[in-house]
TrEMBL record:
Limits of the Malic enzyme NAD-binding domain: 257-519
GO molecular function, one term: NAD binding
Protein name from the UniProt record: Malic enzyme
Organism: Absidia repens
Presence of the UniProt keyword Amino-acid biosynthesis in the record: no
Amino acid sequence: MDTAQRARLGLNALSPSRVETLAIQKRRAMRQLRSKSSLLEKYIFMAQMRTTQTHLFYKIVIEELEELAPVIYTPTVGTACLEYSNMYPFLAAPGVSDGLYLTYPNSAAAPTTSDLVSMIKQYQPFPNEIYQPEIAVISDGSRILGLGDLGVNGIGIPIGKLQLYVAGAGIDPRKTLPIILDLGTNNDKFLEDEFYLGLRQRRPDEQQFYESVEKVIQSIHQVYPDILIQFEDWSSEHAFGLLEKYQKKMLCFNDDIQGTGAVILSGVINAIRRVQKESGVEPQGHRVVFYGAGSAAIGVARQIQEYFQIEHGLTEEQARQLFWIVDSKGLVTVDRGDKLAQHKTYYARNDNQGQQYKSLLDIVEYVKPTVLIGLSSIPGAFTEQVLRRLAALNEQPIVFPLSNPATQAECTFEQAMQATEHRVIFASGTAFPAFTEPLTQKRHIPGQGNNMYIFPGLGLGAVLAKPTYISDGMIYAAAKALADSLSQDEIQQGWLYPTLTRIRQVSAIVATAVCHEAITENLAQSAHLLAVPKDDILPYVVKHMWAPHSLDALASSSSRI
Ligand SMILES: NC(=O)C1=CN([C@@H]2O[C@H](COP(=O)(O)OP(=O)(O)OC[C@H]3O[C@@H](n4cnc5c(N)ncnc54)[C@H](OP(=O)(O)O)[C@@H]3O)[C@@H](O)[C@H]2O)C=CC1
Ligand SMILES: CC(=O)C(=O)O
Ligand SMILES: [Mg+2]
């Protein structure tokens, strides 16, 4: 707002007279941000900015994403969720809500569909704007990163994911809807904590759970019929149950199963290409051990399996045999003697000849893997011994400790580099610092295998194509597009993922692949997209990406959007 506008609206006495560009506002904000000594303080500073100065917030996040991703996303969002009830009153400006809280008591006070519809309509984050969200991220807080059941505190995750949609894929912030479904928590610490802000009840039984979620989804669709729903950080059993129930019935996906599957497939494709080129290992010669057998691990295994079948001509059975899955009881085998959760049975081994393997070192010795993927939330599980053994077995061991946040990672980049004489091919869920070889001073930059490279582009593609549902083919197309999005320079440096500074470009490529696939499968329903010539889809996607005011535009420090 310039001086004349302020005077006209009778606002000129409410702030100092100077009118600033966004560029100078950004310089001031960066100086403040960098003066904060802890990541959590930075998170709080940014959270306040998001709800008061949305343009400035996104200008900073987009232009300084490498610096800001660890603040607004993993690892700090993990700490923020742990602390959410302690910080909540200080996070947003008074009267501004940071997300939609759907509270669902497990009693006679349970909301009806009409109650839920009213609650959903209450959330109007931009009071002077028509609010018509296109993407909702919903969690019930039951498995927040690798930190367990955090109940209502899990709201930080939908908020963080949607910020990346805006920054990474140019989704208009006015079209985003973060939702926490508060069904209670089984976290005793929270239930006893006087500051915990969620429902003080235990989680419902299975029947109640599925009935409640069904009612919530129906209510969301009553208010916003075409919205894309991203399921995020639900406990694994429910993540699979909900995906199976809804995948083909509505526009939705599960980020932990499908987004993670796609992003890690993409990194694995580039790792396999590199190891083939540099060490001569044929793709079919890989053996993959998953440490962890939850939604993320099984999602990744399914995607990699599909890759071997599609790209390398393996039969389903041949491809399945490339995987060994480990859970808290050891290697998953058909004869282990316990009842396996449904999602584990497909990968249970039957070639162990009665032998049961418990420790990871024994499993590495038995399988002799070329790839070790951690999705267990067990910090330090990839011990020096395990890593050394992998390095003895492989010229270039592929090691992906993917659990989040960094405190839960199975090993650090430094540990993996040191134990493998710097030969490891590495990606982690949360970014680790670069490693410099002491003798040669050669600097290695680790990969970040995080679904943030997939879900923004996948969501953007889905919003533009409006498919009846998100198919497996679209997820696979997204993974392939990401794998092929690396520049020559990035490939030469041995990277598995593109630099984060290119995330908008990469998301546009991923979204384009999703649109193409939706059209090919006859699922796209957007008349606009269907009228675009095939070769013009990428520019069409780019044209639809939102960006904050341009650098030189005058912007009032009090205007949110
Ligand atoms: N990098 C990324 O983009 C992503 C990372 N993740 C991360 O993946 C992790 C797992 O997520 P998710 O699969 O949904 O969660 P779950 O909690 O469902 O899965 C954890 C798995 O680890 C197993 N496990 C636990 N303890 C051990 C142990 N001592 N030894 C071996 N296995 C063990 C569990 O076994 P059991 O089944 O017996 O309980 C379970 O199968 C989280 O840290 C999450 O943050 C998730 C999504 C994306
Ligand atoms: C990255 C992510 O989705 C997770 O850790 O759950
Ligand atoms: Mg997640």
